[in-house]
Amino acid sequence: MDARILFAAAQLLVCLRDARLLASRPRLAYWWVPASLLVATVCGVAAEHLSADRARAILEDPRFWCPAVGLHAVAAAWSSIRIRRGGRPDWICVLPTPVTLVAWTGVSREVLVYSEALPGPLTGVLVGAACVGLSMVAAIVTRGRVDAESALRFATLTHLSALCLIPAGAIADRPIASQPVDWTATAVVLPAVGILLGLSFAWHRWRAR
């Protein structure tokens, strides 16, 4: 499967995550909007200086996607802790994710390939603004129907999904003709799936009690 599809699906989940968090606590938008646009600008600058081969090499490098997986694991744990303590979403919960950085940089690069008139920073801002706008509209539509606990629970599941999608996206475009076993990817993906299933089972058992 094309890695772009996986990262697009992951970014859609992140947009829904942000929408639900903002719906449960609208004041987060005052910090989240400028921070997101700043990150989008950085993504646009990166896209302007990355070739297709270099971008692919970065994605396939464990030195990139292993820390990215780790950051999503930390974000999932943070949201889960907020649930257990009965807290509300905070600014940490709406931080731009590694998936967001990859998705915005990739889309910005695609736009720059077909439109030489746009500078990189502006392209990044436009891409980021589209996602921000989508989340804002969804937040307005769902406001009053999403509480803090359900928003944090969805955020936790979003990050757990990214634990599987990031390694899968990193190896998705590798040729099928040569089939050596990538033990590094296997060692990350399989435990991530097992952890996701285990956490899901434990969560439902805890809810049942």
Q: Can you describe this structure in just a few lines?
A:
The protein has 8 helices and no strands.
Describe the structure.
This protein is mostly helical. It is built from 8 helices and no strands. Helix 7 (148-171) runs antiparallel to helix 8 (183-208).
Helices and strands in order, then pairings?
Layout: H1 3-24, H2 29-49, H3 52-60, H4 62-84, H5 98-114, H6 120-142, H7 148-171, H8 183-208
Helix pairs in contact: 1-5, 1-6, 1-7, 2-5, 2-6, 4-7, 5-6, 7-8
The termini sit apart by 40 Å
Q: Quick one: biggest sheet? A: none
Q: Which band does the percent of strand residues land in?
A: under 5%
Q: How many runs of DSSP E, i.e. beta strands?
A: 0
What portion of residues is helical? over 70%
> Count of helices?
8
Q: Quick one: overall form?
A: globular
Rg estimate, integer Å: 18 Å
Question: What sequence of helices (H) and strands (E) makes up the elements?
Answer: HHHHHHHH
**Average pLDDT score:** 81
Residue windows where pLDDT falls under 50 for at least 5 positions: 174-179
Structural class: mainly alpha
